[in-house]
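The material for today's practical consists of a large collection of protein records. There is nothing in a record beyond a sequence line and a structure line. As an example, a complete record with its sequence and its structure tokens follows:
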Amino acid sequence: MTVLARISARLRGLAAAGLAAAALTACAQPAPVPDFADLRWTNKQAMTFQTNDKVVQSDFQPSFQPPYVEHLMPLPPERALRTWAEDRIAVTGTSGVPGEVGGLRVVRFVIRDASVREERLQTSEGVRGFLSDEQAWKYTAHIQADLEVLRDRTVLASATTEGYRSKTLGEKASLNEREEVWYALVVDLMQDFDAAMAQNVRRHLGEHLVGQ
């Protein structure tokens, strides 16, 4: 083999090795992390109350223990509820009640529950289980919140709304896929909550709203 032929063969070998290394590097690259933005409601008109102030509080205490996983989620239901209250509840800054003497009126949003429970589902064993990708996990989210109008510490009117949603996940799902399911679960649940709470507010707190 001539020197030129040896050099040409060497270059072809290096090129093939480079392509193989590039392919292995590409395979080794981790999947891009999904963007889990907070769920906002600024595209909807806020429900404005004739009150002096607004208070948002949470009585929910996560356990941080299995089978509950809300603290691991990219959008925990509790945070989604707080954001909902920030965007969907507004106040006039005055009570709007002529002749009312003493005391401030407050609209208070209280988070009672914002939990997500994980459940392991039964899947096939043996060859069938190895070859299939069955639904292996179930996630059930539960939220409950009260919206109250108070004068001093007296509750004048209130509306309670709660909701449940569940989604399942395949046994071979990646971490990104698991988080995408969790995120979609909370988004769907909050959309249910928004529609139900708006209806309950009109029914039970309508007299305290502006423009209703």
Q: What stands out?
A: The first helix runs from residue 3 to 28. Strands lie at 47-49, 53-58, 89-91, 105-120, 135-151, 154-170. The CA atoms of residues 67 and 118 lie 5 Å apart.
